[in-house]
Specification:
5 strands
Length: 223
């Protein structure tokens, strides 16, 4: 997997370069601090994945993602962010396949690179049943607050919220005490009823209607 590291901070590029170099199946094909360097690296190296530092002064991560999507449509973008805030929606809309906190552990970042490069979408995941202590999925006082949610069953609403938290099907099954095959059925019915193409669009939808409060998100790696 050829990796392009993108940041306008030389020390950040050097740090991620050291992190990835020497790892099995990973190769740092280049690093870039501006769009000209990105264009040069893309033309000469054709990276499989770009690891993008979102906390930059002279680079707009969303602009970088869109540029890469045009120049290297078969590559993927993993964005390392400081917080999961309103910027996350911009990055997802721009085409980011993965979002991960930049304070994640080295092992988590390397795992995220491998997952995203392999074709998986990755967002901030939950911590299994610990999520129940933060935002119970069965609370009775919840106001659906959006016409589209009225087409969903209570369990499908729960599944949508957990997907927005970054939970995998296995984690959702653990939280809701159901089988993973049942979760897959709930997910597909929820996507069909809301006319959403995939899980990424479900996350965008959930944040747009205010279903999830961003300060409560937790960190980790989603398989």
């Amino acid at each position: 997997m050829r990796i392009l590291v993108v940041s306008d901070r030389a020390v950040v590029r050097a740090g991620y370069r050291r992190l990835f170099e020497g790892k099995p199946e990973l190769e740092v094909s280049g690093d870039a601090g501006d769009l000209l360097q990105i264009a040069s690296s893309v033309e000469s190296q054709r990276p499989d994945i770009a690891v993008i530092d979102s906390e930059t002064n002279s680079l707009d991560a969303a602009e970088v993602i869109r540029f890469l999507g045009v120049e290297t449509p078969n590559s993927a973008s993993l964005v390392l962010v400081g917080e999961f805030d309103e910027q996350a929606q911009r990055l997802l809309r721009a085409g980011a396949r993965g979002l991960l906190l930049n304070r994640s552990s080295p092992a988590e970042i390397v795992s995220a690179v491998r997952l995203v490069a392999a074709g998986y979408s990755l967002l901030f995941p939950c911590r299994g049943r610990r999520l129940l202590d933060l935002d119970p999925v069965d609370r009775e006082d919840e106001d659906p607050g959006h016409e589209g949610l009225g087409r969903l069953t209570r369990r499908e609403v729960d599944v949508l919220r957990l997907i927005a938290r970054g939970c995998s099907n296995a984690e959702i099954a653990d939280v809701l005490y159901v089988s993973e095959s049942t979760v897959k059925s709930h997910v597909q019915r929820m996507l069909d009823k809301l006319d959403l193409r995939n899980r990424v669009h479900a996350v965008i939808y959930a944040y747009e209607i205010g279903m999830v409060q961003t300060p409560r998100l937790s960190t980790g790696v989603l398989a």
